[in-house]
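ARCHIVE CARD
Drawer: 12
Card no.: 0347
Subject: one protein chain, sequence and derived structure
Cross-reference: see card 0346
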Amino acid sequence: MSEPLTLARPYARAAFEVARDAGALSSWVDHLAFAAQAIADERVHAVVGDPRLDHGELVGLLLPPGVSADSAFAMFLALLVENRRVELLSDILALFEQYKREAEHVLKVTLRTATAISAEQENAIKAALKKRFDRNIQMQQLVDPEIIGGAVIDAGDTVIDGSVSGRLARLETALAR
């Protein structure tokens, strides 16, 4: 069986292109998040394969309030329902957000520190990362006491480990040789 991300990728790409062309990337993120949350609800998930439930009714369950039943997003949901791919909505959302960040030249960064950092420190790190990667930075901070001190910056394919625990691990490896 194929991996969910492999199955979700063409749907996410198609949704992204439709939303981008309509200038509605942010609203599509919100709509996809609503639909992904709805399908994750066990009551909704329980009726997904029920033959008594019409495709249009399932689309209606997944459609965010205020979104027209004849909108591009509703047609996208109808395609997912018809192809029995609604379970992929969370993967489609994750890929869609990734495509959106790439289009907007935004890099998602996770900063792990032993203690919380100040807004001034966060801004300095963002500025340095923006200069290094030539992208706007979307940063998520995590407090992880196990790193003892310093910080670990996870920027997609690049990990910058300036933590005390990382230095100790490198020292241990060097001494073991």
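Annotation on reverse: The mean pLDDT is 90. The chain has two domains: 4-101, 106-176.
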